[in-house]
Design goal:
The protein has helices at residues 10-13, 77-84, 92-100, 165-173, 180-206; strands spanning 21-25, 32-36, 41-44, 50-56, 60-68, 112-119, 126-133, 138-147, 150-158. It has five helices and nine strands. The chain is elongated and about 95 Å long. The longest helix is centred in the last third of the chain and has 27 residues, at 180-206. With 219 residues, it is an alpha+beta fold. It has a domain at 42-168 and 179-196: Protein Transport Mog1p, Chain A. The strands form two sheets. A seven-stranded antiparallel β-sheet has the order 3-4-5-9-8-7-6, with helices on both faces. A two-stranded antiparallel sheet has the order 1-2.
Amino acid sequence: MRILALAAILGVGLCLGAAEAREYRDPAGRIVFDAPANWPVTVEQAPADTTYLIAGNDDNECRFIVRESPSTANSSPYDIWRTAKDDARFTDAFWLAQANAIQRVFPNNSAVLASHARDDSGFWPMQRAELDSPSRRLHVYGGFQLRSGIEMLGLCINYDGDPPTATYDSVLRSMAHPNDATFRAAAEERIAARAAAEAAAAAAAAQPAPEPPPNRRRN
């Protein structure tokens, strides 16, 4: 996997000013994101455990497919944070499976993976990818995030003109969960506790061993 220094371009990627963007909150309570004010949001038909949203206009759009994940519903926010940083889980096969599940964008399992990397610009690690849909002649910019019991996939697509990649970066990085403040506080508490425990263990290991008491002769 090609690991890119995506965090370094955070300052370049943020192009949506407060006056130009608006927050959208999913009525099902699974996702929150910011999108340009001139991008209407539509709710697509989806199974009961899934939210499918499209935000965009005639030239550009970002699709959000958010699924409940029973296998991680009982996972702590700290464990989710660690899992999201485990790049070995997010292979080429993972990305192709995610993309090909969206048949409207990648018909007939036609997704071609161009690259993928981890984006550490925010507290929650996000897996990023670029893919091609040859049959539709589309280049797609993807982002994937995890929360306890939730998987969030964002796909940004350009249909005409130059792709506004900075806008895509901003929109994808804005993906969040309505309970993120609580999740983050719990994760940070565990991170701090582990750091303190590791520091204490290191300090104890660095202490010199006590000298044995001197032998005393009996008269």
